[in-house]
Amino acid sequence: MNNETIIPDEGEVILINKPLRWTSFDVANKLKRGCKFSKIGHAGTLDPLATGLLILCTGKKTKQIDSYQAQEKEYTGTFVLGKTTPSIDLETEFDAEFPVDHINAEILEKTRQQFLGQIEQIPPIYSAVKVDGERLYKKARRGETAEIKKRTVEISLFEIDSSNFPSIDFKIVCSKGTYIRSIVRDFGQLAQSGAYLSALCRTRIGSFELSNAWELTDFIYQKRIELKLPVEE
Known about the structure:
By secondary structure, the chain is an alpha+beta fold. Helices cover 23% and strands 31% of the residues. The strands form 3 sheets. Strands 1, 2, 3, 4, 7, 10, 11, 12, 13 and 14 form a 10-stranded mixed beta sheet that branches. The longest helix has 12 residues, at 24-35. It is elongated and about 60 Å long. 33% of the residues are buried. Belongs to the pseudouridine synthase TruB family. Type 1 subfamily.
């Protein structure tokens, strides 16, 4: 792990393994308070129910955020066929069940192949995309609908493992702006069933690997020692 300290005034690029159920903003705010950063931002939001690599930039390094956001992302995770939820993950309750007995290896492979290369997808209604100046998830939580524009994304790798069917383990490498939950939703529909995301971890952003990331509490502990601030044992 590269734990080299950069001069605080110049800022630094911090790799954090985002904890489950934390928002990306929660992580940035915790670091700002705990490490006394005057300016901090993150490069690419992770949903609260996702874990994995979150890049945060402080000070002058915040100017690099856009360049990190533009890099390809790698994810691993699991989705389950046969049920759906409004949020396409476990944030909301199940709302429908679908058959899965007809789904065989041939159907899974044919469906998988349809997601390779450039594809169009519609972001989930439970997302931070803005429509008419408001985040979609706020509309969704009020039970409202909205017209959501399609976006073009690129999937350069999509591997699946159906050993635990109807749970499907996967690995995806994708472009900026890709919604994994949209892929899960569309996969279920193309397989004449339904699906929801049960686990998601971001393992890479560009050349930055999750294996080189700090646990949040460890980073704050080390930084406070460096700054000669009180630390909790």
